[in-house]
Amino acid sequence: MKSRILVVAAALALAAAPLTSPASAASLTSAQAVRLAPPNLSLANVKAHLSQLQSIASSNGGNRAHGRPGYLASANYVKAQLDAAGFQTVLQSFTYNGATGYNVIADWPGGNPDDILMVGAHLDSVTAGPGINDNGSGSASILEAALEVSRQALQPAKHLRFAWWGAEELGLRGSQHYVTNLSTADRAKIKGYLNFDMVGSSNAGYFVYDGDNSDGVGSGPGPTGSAELERTLQDYFASIGVPTRGTDFDGRSDYGPFISRGIPAGGTFTGAEGIKSSSQAQLWGGTAGQAFDPCYHRSCDTTANINDTALDRNADAVAYAVWTIATAVPPVTVWSDDFETDTGWTANPNGTDTATTGLWERGDPQATTSSGTKQVGTTVSGVNDLVTGRLAGSSAGAYDIDGGVTSIQSPPVTMPSSGVLRLSFSWYLAHGSNASNADFFRVKIVGDTTSTVFQQLGAASDRDGGWGASTADISAFAGQTVRVVFEAADASGASLVEAGVDDVKVTQQ
């Protein structure tokens, strides 16, 4: 992790079992590959990789930093493991600060070349130490995941690409070089990037990148698709009973060059120099008042600076995400609306709305600000969205919601009778500090019954407008004709409340 940078890196591990050649992978059908369960990666293998990286550092001046012999030895070690496992590997060179750096790029043969899942971690350390947690832990975890792909002769639907980045500690130099030098067409083929950096911190927390901006803080959501990557990782930790918390896309890690070009991203992180709070210690154990990694960027970041439990869980999270995402059959779009044309949405469909201003409408929104953005003047796609009072007026409160509830209903949507059905949408709720939890943004499905499938309540604190993305399982409405209803309310008095919706979609998997 570069100085003061949150980084997510993919986990790697040393292969103890014999590797299966790509040729034998041909004996598996795609359907068989889909049925393969995500593996439990060997912690011993991951730690064996860390031991190798420690030995490399010890033999090369105590570090594996950019431009130093320890880094090139680390890259050659990773590349040799992947070459033996049947990956197509490239040692991509670049120059920074007068020194040559290297990215290791490894492609697993097969999968849709126009639908790439990329998994990455930075391989370099700072000059002060061997960098075993930062970021040998991520590098070793994704390496073991890659080697397990070979052992299982996995035939994913997506094309799999793994990457180990150089010079991250100097400002994301390796990943920036890689993304910048891709053609526009090749960048468009990368449909998701998972980043794993510092996944074995000794005083660990369990953080997942906030792809949907559900935390409502910081820089906003990742590009469309980031919410799904976040949910996949959350699902894994939920399956083992480990609570997670969000961490912001603040540009401090190798996901930065990807999201800056619209590529969805996600990943996990166990903490760096930040101090673990009392509530976090109650949630995860460990020591409150101490850094998540007391050896961050220090010479003591050795193999002794690893929390085995955190490393094991995060390595398995890497494998879960790779197997789950890469082998999934792409969903079928049942219905969608980007609001660029009028498809028949109805405001106040039941005639019961009480709001007097800020009524839902389709249109080109005008930005408003009051202690930050309140009505977002840009859409997720195109020119139009659904917005509560699209005009700005003379002040932020001129056309915001007042007087109660405003609602808008979709045209009828016929749902398939089978499969997993999901509603996805981009949204925001913004309000001033004079709001309360009586104010809300709410999503309902109206079919044979009515169900609230998403809700965000207001609070007595300022919340700026910023696009997030959410998904709800609506399989209970299979075989029905339904309508989607969006509601927003200023129900606590004369508060400042705004909301918006864009890119609504129903899919079947």
Notes on the structure:
- By secondary structure, this protein is of the alpha+beta class.
- The protein is 24% helix and 27% strand.
- The protein is built from eleven helices and 22 strands.
- It has an eight-stranded mixed sheet with strand order 1-2-4-3-5-8-6-7, sandwiched between helices.
- Helix 5 (132-151) links the parallel strand 3 and strand 4.
- Helix 3 (43-58) packs antiparallel against helix 4 (69-84).
- The chain is globular.
- The model is unreliable at 3-35 (pLDDT under 50).
List the helices and strands and how they pair.
Layout: H1 22-25, H2 30-35, H3 43-58, H4 69-84, E1 88-96, E2 99-108, E3 112-122, H5 132-151, E4 158-165, H6 173-180, H7 184-189, E5 190-196, E6 207-209, H8 226-239, E7 245-247, H9 256-259, E8 265-269, H10 278-284, H11 308-326, E9 332-337, E10 346-347, E11 360-363, E12 368-369, E13 373-375, E14 385-388, E15 405-409, E16 413-414, E17 421-431, E18 440-446, E19 450-457, E20 468-473, E21 481-489, E22 497-508
Parallel strand pairs: 3-4, 3-5, 5-8, 6-7
Antiparallel strand pairs: 1-2, 2-4, 6-8, 9-22, 10-15, 11-14, 12-13, 14-22, 15-21, 16-21, 17-20, 17-22, 18-19, 18-21
* Mean pLDDT across every amino acid position: 92
Question: Strand content of the residues, in percent?
Answer: 25-35%
Rounded to the nearest angstrom, the distance between the terminal CA atoms is 37 Å
How much helix, percentage-wise, in residues?
10-25%
Largest sheet, described in full? 8 strands, mixed
Outline, from the CA principal axes? Answer: globular
Total strands: 22
Instruction: Classify the secondary structure makeup into a structural class.
Output: alpha+beta
Q: Count up the helices.
A: 11
| Low-pLDDT runs | 3-35
Q: In order across it, which strands form the biggest sheet? A: 1-2-4-3-5-8-6-7
For the CA atoms, what is the radius of gyration?
A: 24 Å
